[in-house]
Amino acid sequence: MTTPMTSDFTRRRLLGAGLAATTALALPLPALALNDASAKALIDKVVAEINRVIASGKSLGAMIQDFERIFARYADVNIIARSTLGADSRRASPAQMRAFTDTFRGYIARKYGKQFRQFVGGRIEVQGVRKVKSWHEVISTVYLRGEAPFEVRFLVSDRSGRDLFFDMLIEGVSLRLSERTEIGSMLDARRGNIDALIQDLQRAG
Amino acid sequence: MTYHLTLSPSRLLRAALACLLAAGLAACSAPGADHQTGAPWDPHEERNRKIHKFNKGLDRSVLRPVSRGYSAFMPDDIEAAVSRFSFNLSIPQSVVNNILQGNMRGATEDTYRFVVNTTIGLGGFFDPATELNMPEATDTDFGETLHVWGVPEGAYVETPVFGPSTERDYAGRWVDLLTNPLRYALESPESYIPPAARLSSTLSQRGRYGDSIDALLYDSADSYAQARSLYLQNRRFKLGGTEGEAYVDPYEDPYGATYEDPYDDPYDE
């Protein structure tokens, strides 16, 4: 019984390894490694899209939809969602994790997209980039009408397999850490019931 | 004859009190070895939560409605001018703290800013210093001075009316209050101008960031925990931002203590 299974497994693995090798050969290697330039390029794109949304003059609902699209495309929503759920993500089933991640994306878009009201007439400028631990930190400045400019940092990593940002720090306040506190409190209020948390999250933000 | 002295007995007493407070800071508590890294050090949580409830009530019944009325009544330009005026009045205190921190460059730059904005800026109601691209104000305080002197952050405390703080910063606030040079320069009734300007600036801010503050206080699942998290992150960022070495020591590092690489261990608390 074991022999056919093993051989089947080995064949598949060999096939997989062969494919991976071909892909690696086919792709120019430098493009795989994240560096200051590629991290900055990613955030330049994010900032350009956000600036376009701010300048579009759309309704708040439309802006929130745009923001969710930007967030889904350029942020590593999986790792952000998993890390805000913290230790509890270990006992979540794959289906729960998927549902939580999807709901979390919409929640973040609503909660932070609402802030775009204050952004009308403002703009974001990318200032610089530096390497911190295993990630790259892109520093930008936000200029709002009639207010002192403030700093927003985007943390970019390629450890998901793609260049994506996994956190945003506004004057040192991390979206990921603040949401971990919030999601933790919501889960406590539901006595640790993840399904109930997902339901609450659909209405929150 | 004592009337001719610049330092009257009551002022000396205040200065002495300030020193005493600073000395009492050795009492800043520190987390034990069993304390989880990254979790806030909050041994007074029970008392803090009561004060948070009180502050929230105060906001709901007084600050929020008054700030709405104030913001609606005052033209935006006037509100902004009063806020600039109030900020300008806080600069002498920053200069003192810069000197205590050994940051002579900051002290000089802040002094120039104060002189320019007080004269050309008509008493600080306008901000020509920023328009002239002068260096940003350091906006420092005695809590930061204590940080530079190596005093640990201490436990998190929520203070009545003034809100989130740490043991170190709360003590610093009192020292700032008692050693503000303007208190010694101004006599009554002019001495009431700075606190009045500060109050109206606070009202403006409550009005201006109304939605964000409402979201924090009234929409979050646990507004106490959320306020604590935001305050500590922002405060550590401010202190780390002015002191490059903070990035080296993992315990002082705003990322190190609370900020692990989520890809290493996404489950890590």
Please give a structural write-up.
The complex is a heterodimer of chains A (205) and B (269). With 205 residues, chain A is an alpha+beta fold. In chain A, 58% of the residues lie in helices and 18% in strands. Chain A has helices at 2-26, 36-56, 60-74, 77-85, 94-113, 116-119, 175-189, 194-203, and strands at 123-132, 135-143, 150-157, 164-170, 173-174. In chain A, β3 (150-157) and β4 (164-170) form a beta hairpin. In chain A, α2 packs antiparallel against α3 (60-74), α4 (77-85) crosses α5 and α5 (94-113) packs parallel to α8 (194-203). The longest helix of chain B has 29 residues, at 45-73. Chain B starts with 8 loop residues before the first helix and ends in a 27-residue tail after the last helix. In chain B, α3 (76-100) packs antiparallel against α4 (104-119) and α10 crosses α11. Chain B has 269 residues and is mainly α. Chain B has 11 helices and 2 strands; from the N terminus they run ααααααββααααα. Chain B is globular. Chain B has a two-stranded antiparallel sheet. Classes of the chains: A alpha+beta (205), B mainly alpha (269).
What's the structural blueprint in terms of helices and strands?
The complex is a heterodimer of chains A (205) and B (269).
Chain A: H1 2-26, H2 36-56, H3 60-74, H4 77-85, H5 94-113, H6 116-119, E1 123-132, E2 135-143, E3 150-157, E4 164-170, E5 173-174, H7 175-189, H8 194-203
Antiparallel strand pairs in A: 1-2, 2-3, 3-4, 4-5
Chain B: H1 9-23, H2 45-73, H3 76-100, H4 104-119, H5 128-131, H6 142-148, E1 156-159, E2 163-166, H7 167-179, H8 181-185, H9 193-208, H10 210-219, H11 223-242
Helix pairs in contact in B: 1-7, 2-9, 3-4, 3-9, 6-7, 10-11
